[in-house]
Design a protein that fits this description.
Helix 1 packs across helix 6 and helix 4 packs across helix 5. This protein folds into 4 domains: about 160 residues, MoaB/Mog-like domain (Molybdenum Cofactor Biosythetic Enzyme, Chain A, 3-Layer(aba) Sandwich), CATH 3.40.980.10; about 60 residues, Molybdopterin biosynthesis moea protein, domain 2; about 80 residues, Molybdopterin biosynthesis moeA protein, domain 3; about 80 residues, Beta-clip, CATH 2.40.340.10. The strands form 7 sheets. It has a 6-stranded mixed sheet with strand order 7-4-6-5-9-8, with no helix packed on it. The chain has a 6-stranded mixed sheet with strand order 16-13-17-21-20-18, sandwiched between helices. A 5-stranded mixed beta barrel has the order 22-24-23-25-26. The chain is elongated. The protein is of the alpha/beta class. It binds adenosine monophosphate (AMP) and magnesium ion.
Length: about 400
């Protein structure tokens, strides 16, 4: 048996770095990975500007009871005149600070009558001005190569004027489900059949991570069917995921099919539950990962073992989400020779502690547990664990992103 952490590390290192880059419009870039390190070309904000609706003055001109004639009304987007001594310029949030002004008086702190402003309260010098470069300075690094772009990164890049960026081409993933007992949803089903849930599930998992599910194929349990499926998948994809057919059953023909393409398959009995049989092969440097057939096992193995590999092949710098912990809420006692990944729902107590409640049925056939769960709780092998134990928590929002 291969321990879980070793299996995870080996899989994470099993793929190559992406080689194809492309130019991507910034408004199409969400979920894409930067293929270049980007630097600021501008100070942000690019000019001193007003944080308030108010009046710009030179602080030295202030004296109690003094009236300031309004020289200009300078709306955001209008170029300010240079402030004449003793005057004020009416400003709005975002208006550029006029040359010669050093202080903004909020409109609430005075009264404008007959085109002049009376200040009710002594202003602090420099008040309500956002300084040029206080956010970002020109030349500073914005994002390193390998950064996953989301709304926050896109906001900063847009504020720097980037209309397009170099990203890695989306990773092409091929999915192969196997089994004579499976029919596609929408097809007539005999008593001896079940619907194929892994194909659609894996396609959704892959697409949600920003990769492309280029093919979702199904093969009957015959050498010919498997071989022709692998031909297509190895031609068109960077990474192949297969499900089922890798145990030691008579119909477990995935291994010989891969061997016909020159790949050697390392069959691992990973010490985890659900999901024991997991295999890795390479054909012409392309990784093939074979997942267990039960949908819950396939989901769990994909989440904790395959996503680091996928992120690494996408060129992402961060391939492991940061560790999290929660406290188990259960009446059961756990103690298994394998690491157990329970489907749990996380809730926060008013004190801010994360509590993890397992789904009542933890069998690897219980598909309904997946949509119920917010994540997986890891119960260490050969360790008695019960109510109140602190255990690692794999939040699906992080692990499946
Ligand atoms: P196998 O490893 O092929 O023996 O599959 C293990 C179990 O998972 C069997 O009960 C299969 O019927 C089931 N299974 C395999 N592939 C799928 C799939 N694509 N959708 C739903 N169940 C599957
Ligand atoms: Mg099968």
């Amino acid at each position: 048996m291969l321990d879980f952490d070793t299996a995870q590390a080996r899989l994470a290192a099993a793929g190559g770095h992406p080689s194809i880059t492309e130019t991507c419009a910034l408004n199409q870039a969400s979920g894409r990975v930067l293929a270049q390190t980007l630097f600021a070309t501008l100070d942000l904000p690019p000019a001193d500007n007003s944080a308030m609706d108010g009046y710009a003055i030179r602080h030295a001109d202030y004296a109690p009871g003094k009236r300031f004639p309004v020289q200009q009304r300078c709306y955001a987007g209008v170029k300010p005149e240079a402030l004449q001594p003793g005057n004020t310029i009416r400003l709005f949030t975002g208006s550029v600070i006029p040359h010669g002004a050093d202080t903004v008086v909020m409109q609430e702190d005075g009264d404008e009558t007959d085109n002049a402003f009376d200040i009710r309260q002594a202003p602090a010098k420099g008040a309500h001005i956002r300084l040029r470069g206080e956010d970002i300075q020109s030349g500073e690094q914005l994002f390193a190569k390998g950064t996953l772009l989301g709304a926050a990164e896109i906001a900063l890049l847009a504020s720097q004027g980037y209309a397009e960026v170099h990203t890695y081409a989306r990773l092409k993933v091929g999915i192969l489900t196997t089994g004579d007992e499976l029919v596609s949803p929408g097809q007539p089903r005999g008593e001896e059949h079940i619907y194929n849930s892994n194909g659609a599930m894996l396609a959704a998992l892959v697409e949600n991570m920003g990769a492309r599910a280029v093919h979702v194929l199904h093969a009957l349990d015959t050498e010919d069917a498997l071989q022709s499926a692998f031909e297509t998948l190895l031609r068109d994809c960077d990474l192949v995921l297969t499900v089922g057919g890798v145990s030691v059953g008579e119909k477990d023909l995935v291994k010989p099919a891969i061997e016909q393409f020159g790949g050697t398959l390392d069959l691992w009995r990973v010490c985890m539950k659900p999901g024991k049989p997991v295999a890795l092969a390479h054909v012409a440097d392309k990784p093939i990962v074979c997942l267990p057939g039960n949908p819950v096992s396939a989901f769990a193995v994909f989440t904790v073992l395959v996503t680091p590999l996928l992120r690494s092949m996408q060129g992402r710098a961060q391939i492991m989400p940061p560790p999290q912990y929660g406290t188990l809420v259960t009446k059961k006692h756990f103690n298994d020779s394998r690491e157990e990944f329970l489907r749990v729902r996380a809730e926060s107590t008013p004190q801010g502690l994360m509590q993890l409640t397992p789904y009542p049925q933890q069998g690897s056939g219980i598909i309904s547990s997946l949509s119920w769960a917010s994540g997986l709780a890891r119960i260490p092998a050969n360790t008695p664990v019960t109510q109140g134990a602190a255990v690692p928590y794999y939040d699906l929002r992080h692990w499946l992103a």
